[in-house]
Amino acid sequence: MEHFYQLGWTLDPIGGASGEAYKAEQDGRKLFLKRNASPFLAALSAEGIVPKLVWTKRIETGEVVTAQHWKNGRELTREEMCSMRVAALMRKIHTSKPLLTMLKKLGMRPMLPDLLLNKIQSSLSPKVNAHHAVRDAIQYLENEVPAVNESNCTVCHGDVNHNNWLLSDADELYLVDWEGAMIADPAIDLGMLLYTYVNPKNWVQWLEEYDQPLTHDLRKRMKWYTLVQAITMVQWYEDHKRFKDMNDWIIFLNRVLKNDRLI
User: Fold this and answer.
1) Protein fold of 2-70
2) What is the chain's pLDDT, residue by residue, as a tens digit (263 residues)?
């Protein structure tokens, strides 16, 4: 990013370990810069899902740098994830034809359940695979693979953790960090969001704002995808030797697996 230093910008690395995101300041102007962002960012900006895209430039290294408006704000709290605003923005994302068209133009194909199952089965370490809760969950996944029609797949974020929701000081709500975007069953987002943040007695109300009835089929699909994502997190934390977090996800996995009331 030497190019921007030479132009008089002050750059502060942000956004975790990737080293590709920066807060840029010059003469009181602030921008969010990112290297090698997906062209999908333009579509997200146009839909108002992320802060507005200001420009895209190719620098001398050949890398593409995008600049978005810098938004002062904060991530949502766990309690705020239950809000109707979150449900409404999730619905906007899942029903957006421009976003879906863009991902298809980028060559993305739907991530169907059998692909997810094969991926997770081939990625587990012997230690994780030997854990009884993981084995029970894998057995459930194999027995209950949902039938999903490609025509019902939408744009999904894939990581709707509260840390990825930005509420600006101007009360604008955004969903950021779209590196894991996919075309898939929207239940992949809904399951993790509801199981993690929303009291089951409020699922019907939350889904009414999302404009989707809580059917038996949706319950089963949400449970299936939530188990997939929970196992993925168990493996991720085991890989990074963060065993307390790994155990927390195993507890969550057990809760989802055994809570038959929410099948």
Assistant:
1) Phosphorylase Kinase; domain 1 (3.30.200)
2) 566 655 667 888 886 544 588 889 888 899 999 888 888 999 999 999 999 999 998 887 788 889 999 999 999 999 999 999 999 999 999 999 999 999 999 999 999 999 999 999 999 999 999 999 999 999 999 999 999 999 999 999 999 999 999 999 999 999 999 999 999 999 999 999 999 999 999 999 999 999 999 999 999 999 999 999 999 999 999 999 999 999 999 999 999 998 754 43
Distance separating alpha carbons of residues 83 and 199, to the nearest angstrom: 12
SS3 content of the chain, % helix, strand, coil (to 5): 50, 15, 30
CATH topology of domain 75-262: Aminoglycoside 3'-phosphotransferase; Chain: A, domain 2 (3.90.1200)
Which of 12, 27, 136, 159 is an active site residue?
159
Alpha carbons 61 and 50: distance in angstroms, whole number: 26
Does residue 185 have an active-site annotation? Answer: no
